[in-house]
């Protein structure tokens, strides 16, 4: 006869030993096994709760947060047993404190950015506590206020620990000491990000003019790792990175050199980058030396003759900083507010080749139309066809009637055999169909258009967003009606076709009003497509639909949750999900009227 021994039958001493051997990741599931184990682990769970409340969404809004987290990191001998370190996974940086006078508690205002708090805050002086490293004070230190002298001793301790852990190379020590002792917190953030062993998410919020210096400092940390030849724990564990997260309508501009550096991170899974600028003079992606950040990013290279400096710096850095084919771990790329003066030239081609297994790419172009999209799709078909599942290309323009999708030839999608989520213009389908026929538009019959539509889209498509009629052409209502009728027929053919067994949802981004208004769609035109979808289990969301699908929302959030800000009290993301189109629309104040909060249009 056999007997079963459960946790509840074991002595407290044995339970304590079991808990001692359990890793940090096992604490919560182990506590759920039975009441005896939960009771035994109650104090540990309370420590987890306290650590999560304190560090679950840490930021630099309070000036003492970064140094206090560094104290935890450097006093810990074994990270695998530190509950506090286990919960330091999510960081948000809003700006850079450049001098001692900047060390205030920050308040966040979407309209004005970062403001010094007027409230009394005992923790607003980070130099009030911490490591008192014994060190002889310089004459400059002795002239400083006592609290600043204590802080300088504390800073020297952090920099020395970072040197011992090979976070800062010898070539970077002088800069790290001088900038930090002058009151800048930029290097402290480099050290913190590099030292956190469980860091997963890092966000740089575009809050005010000093925000951009944070990403420059982070790029310096990447260069330090390349210089040392070894990735520190935090840069190894980092999986999600967002740069330029919009706190307001504040514009952002980032050079391609930044993205080249970020793609060097060894285990990065997702990247969101807002405001990247591809300049017309960037004809070759190797030329990522931006004049604006050269001094900031390349300061540590050896001094050489002034006339040779740019060429020598480029030569040295290209040995480490480039975009080799299939070299990056990134699976998800979102380029928001892309300013592409080069017209998606060599840099974009190199970028699309770089990921090993790219699963999704979303590009929202601003100011300049997203050009050479057919070449982009060709590159994706050649290098990412086995993994790419989501392709969303948008172009934001200033016209009153906006069709927010880039122009491309749909028949070029045939090489993307695993594509599941896609947005496409109906007019591009028509133009593509006409070009495949000898007689052009004259020979384009409804059944031929529907057949072309069905055969053009990859059979793996699961969710499709179709942007409607091109109102710029000023066609008559009758012509618009015929085109919509053709779209209705095409959707029915797609749903009933055996070629597309995976299709789940189709969203139609088409305005609907009374037939007397030109260029717009009459009520109830797509009822046949909706009814066909209902019979086959496919959701068709036309402009007049009242049903709001709950199961497909995750497919359509073109700007992922990484764009949200968690540590700013009361912050509300400035975008909303539009169920009628499956798109993200701006919830910002309109530049035109300055009064409404929804007539602005953005991404």
Describe this structure in words.
- The chain has 603 residues and is an alpha/beta fold.
- The protein folds into 4 domains: 49 residues, no CATH class; 179 residues, no CATH class; 158 residues, no CATH class; 174 residues, no CATH class.
- Helix content is 35%, strand content 14%.
- It is built from 22 helices and 18 strands.
- Strands 1, 2, 5, 6, 7, 8, 9, 10, 11, 12, 13, 14, 15 and 16 form a 14-stranded parallel beta sheet that branches.
- Strand 11, helix 17 and strand 12 form a beta-alpha-beta unit.
- The longest helix is centred in the last third of the chain and has 20 residues.
- The protein is globular and about 85 Å long.
- The N and C termini lie far apart (68 Å).
- The C terminus is likely disordered.
- InterPro entries: LRR_dom_sf (IPR032675).
Features:
4 domains; two-stranded antiparallel sheet; LRR_dom_sf; disordered C terminus; 14-stranded parallel beta sheet; single chain; 14% strand; alpha/beta; 603 residues
What is the distance, rounded to the nearest whole angstrom, between the alpha carbons of the first and last residues? 68 Å
Task: Output the radius of gyration.
Answer: 28 Å
The portion of residues forming beta strands comes to 5-15%
Could you tell me the mean pLDDT? 74
Instruction: Detail the poorly predicted runs.
Output: 119-143, 282-309, 471-478, 549-558, 579-584, 586-603
Q: Major sheet, described briefly? A: 14 strands, parallel
Q: How many helices does DSSP assign?
A: 22
User: Based on DSSP secondary structure assignment, what is the total number of beta strands?
Assistant: 18
Task: Assign an overall shape.
Answer: globular
Indicate the percent of residues in helices: 25-40%
């Amino acid at each position: 006869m056999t007997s079963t021994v459960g946790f509840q039958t074991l002595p407290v001493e044995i339970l304590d030993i079991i808990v001692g051997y359990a890793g940090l990741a096992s604490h919560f599931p182990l506590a759920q096994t039975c009441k005896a184990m939960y009771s035994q682990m109650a104090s540990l769970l309370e420590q987890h709760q306290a650590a999560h409340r304190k560090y679950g969404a840490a930021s630099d809004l309070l000036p003492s947060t970064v140094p206090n987290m560094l104290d935890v990191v450097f006093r810990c001998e074994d990270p695998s047993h530190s509950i506090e370190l286990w919960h330091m996974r999510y960081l948000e940086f809003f700006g850079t404190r450049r001098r001692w006078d900047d060390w205030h508690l920050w308040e966040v205002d979407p309209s004005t950015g970062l403001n010094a708090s007027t409230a009394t805050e005992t923790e607003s002086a980070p130099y009030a506590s911490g490591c008192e490293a014994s060190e002889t004070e310089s004459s400059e230190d002795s002239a400083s206020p006592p609290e600043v002298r204590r802080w300088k001793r504390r800073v020297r301790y952090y920099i020395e620990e970072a040197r011992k852990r090979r976070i800062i190379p010898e070539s970077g020590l002088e800069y790290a000491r001088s900038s930090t002792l002058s009151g800048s917190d930029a290097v402290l953030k480099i050290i913190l990000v590099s030292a956190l062993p469980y860091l997963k998410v890092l966000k740089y919020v575009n809050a005010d003019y000093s925000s951009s210096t944070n990403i420059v400092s982070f790029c310096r940390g990447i260069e330090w790792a390349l210089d040392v030849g070894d990735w520190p724990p935090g840069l190894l564990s980092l999986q999600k990175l967002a740069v330029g997260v919009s706190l307001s309508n504040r514009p952002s501009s980032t050079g391609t050199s930044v993205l080249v550096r970020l793609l060097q991170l060894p285990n990065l899974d997702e990247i969101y980058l807002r405001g990247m600028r591809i300049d017309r003079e960037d004809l070759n992606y190797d030329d990522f030396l931006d004049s604006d950040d050269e001094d900031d990013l390349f300061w540590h290279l050896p001094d050489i003759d002034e006339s040779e400096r740019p060429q020598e710096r480029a030569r040295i850095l290209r040995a480490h900083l480039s975009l080799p084919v299939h070299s990056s771990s990134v699976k998800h790329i979102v380029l928001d507010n892309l300013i592409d003066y080069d017209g998606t030239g060599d840099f974009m081609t190199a970028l699309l080749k770089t990921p090993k297994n790219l699963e999704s790419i979303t590009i929202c172009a601003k100011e300049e139309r997203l050009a050479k999209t057919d070449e982009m799709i060709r590159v994706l078909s050649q290098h990412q066809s086995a993994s790419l599942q989501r392709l969303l290309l948008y172009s934001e323009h200033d016209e009153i009637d906006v069709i927010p999708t880039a122009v491309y030839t749909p028949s070029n999608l045939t090489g993307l055999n695993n594509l599941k989520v896609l947005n496409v213009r109906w007019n591009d389908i028509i133009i593509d169909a006409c070009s495949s026929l000898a007689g052009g538009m004259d020979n384009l019959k409804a059944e031929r258009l529907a057949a072309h539509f069905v055969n053009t889209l990859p059979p793996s498509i699961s969710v499709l967003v179709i942007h409607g009629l091109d109102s710029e052409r000023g066609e008559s209502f009758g012509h618009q009606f015929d085109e919509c009728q053709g779209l209705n027929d095409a959707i029915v053919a797609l749903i009933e076709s055996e070629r597309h067994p995976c299709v789940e949802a189709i969203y139609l981004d088409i305005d609907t009003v009374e037939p007397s208004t030109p260029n717009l769609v009459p009520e109830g035109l797509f009822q046949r497509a909706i009814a066909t979808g209902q019979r086959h289990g496919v959701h068709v969301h036309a402009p007049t639909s009242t049903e709001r699908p709950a199961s497909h929302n995750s497919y359509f959030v073109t700007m992922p949750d990484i764009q949200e800000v968690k540590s700013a009290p009361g912050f509300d993301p400035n975008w909303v999900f539009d169920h009628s189109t499956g798109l993200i629309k701006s919830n910002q104040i309109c530049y035109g009227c300055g009064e409404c909060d929804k007539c602005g249009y953005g991404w």
